[in-house]
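Recall from the previous lesson that a structure prediction takes nothing but the amino acid sequence as input. Here we apply that procedure to Ferrous iron transport protein A from Lactonifactor longoviformis DSM 17459. The sequence below is the only information supplied.
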Amino acid sequence: MSLVEAKVGSVYRVTQMLVEQKILRRLEALGILEGTRIEILNRKRNGATIIKVRGARWALGSDIASGINLEDYTA
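The prediction returns the following tokens.
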């Protein structure tokens, strides 16, 4: 499932990132990598998804979020 389909309040693990190379490098700089644990905090009307990664909160637009694939986090 993609990040835009994820349920608010749930925790997931990033499995695949299908975004442009420059966006991929920026996400990696923010700590969002394959295998990273992500908590979905909120979803805004404008399509932005608020996530929590490694203690930091980030807002990702739907265009970027649709390129991030997730799986349920079980650890």
